[in-house]
Structures are given as structure tokens and as C-alpha cells.
Amino acid sequence: MTNSLPSVTIVRRIKAPPAKVYAAITQPKLMMQWWGPDAGPTLSAEADVRPGGHFSVVFRLLNGEEHNPTGVYQEVVPEKKLVFTWEWPGVPERESLVTFLLEPFDGGTELTLIHEHLPDEEARKSHEQGWTGLLDKLPVFLEVFFGAAG
Amino acid sequence: MMKHLDVLSDAGLITRAKTGRTVSVNLSVGPMREAMEWLKRYERFWTVSIDRLVALVEEGGE
Hints:
Number of helices of chain A: 4
Largest interface: A-B, 33 and 32 residues
Helix content of chain A: 25-40%
Distance between the termini of chain B: 57 Å
Shape of chain A: globular
Strand content of chain B: 15-25%
Shape of chain B: rod-shaped
Helix content of chain B: 55-70%
Number of helices of chain B: 2
Number of strands of chain A: 8
Strand order of the largest sheet of chain B: 1-2
Oligomer: heterodimer
Strand content of chain A: 35-45%
């Protein structure tokens, strides 16, 4: 089940050192200058960058819509790794997980971004049930599927 | 083959029904479409955001 959930991975080589890239993804003042899916403005950014700390960003799209993704930092390794959950308030959507990886590369930084779609509780449960019971259920399943001949 | 169908079935991408000796397999487009929309949305979000991030950190470098 987990494998069926989509994820987005983006890798970019940047001509700036990891310290500078890390600052841009963790300091609200700098986050406000790039965070958003079009040229619309970022209206606010809060980032309590420590495990368990919250982030909240509000951006306005060119079409006037405002959005406010929020989340909780899971893993914080300065200049190397930043992992946080991601959710949209009021949207009954599965929580997802964002990972930024920074590696020094040729005087600059190789940035890897992974945005994964986490399974919700129901999916987790059915996945767990599906696998834990698999060996017990397999003979029965085969019989039902192929009849006595199977 | 059956294993592959199990994976697709667990993922909610197909449904199976047995009538006598025949098993019919149907494709469920709903979950697939949902996954595609999710992918499109975040690909766009991060591609544009990271382009802007790169411009920010690369401009006026040390």
C-alpha cells in the first residue's frame, strides 16, 4: 500500500554553499522570498526549526487565492537535512512529509527535495492487516480464487 | 501475475469479482486520478519554489 502512494523528488545543483541554502529554507525572512508556486507574494512565514517545532507559511497566488500549509519539524540537521510534515488546514487530506537534503557539491550544494504522501490511518491499518495476515490467509485465498483444483 | 494483481488491488487501483470460473478485473480510475493530481500539484509547487530559492541564494553570491 505504501508503495502506491505518490512522491515527488527534485534534485538541483546550486551555486551557493550549503550554509546559505540552509538559511534560505529555515529563516522566515528568507523563506518569504521564494516560498510559493507562482509569482504571487508570500505573506507570512513562521519556522520554529527544532524537532517538534512548527512551521506555517501563508502565500497568495496570482489568482488571488491564499494558502497556508503548516507542519511540524521531524528532523533538523543544520546545513544537511530538514524533515517536516505538511498539511493544509481545513482540508481533509492525508498528511505528507517533506525532506530537504543538502550535500556539498563542487563548491556549491546539491539539493534533493522529496515530498512523500504518507498513508492515512485507514490505509496504514489495511496495509498492516493485509501483510500480517497474509501467510495465514494465503491458502484460503488461493482456494477461493482457483477453487478446489488450486 | 496474481501477486501483481494483489498489489494493484491493495492499492485500490483495481477491483476483482468472481462469477463461476471467471474472474473479472476492473480498473478503478479514481485513486489513480487522485494520485496524478497530487503529483501534478506538488511537482508544480516545488519546481517553481525551488527555482525561486536558487535565484535567491545564487544572486549576489559571496
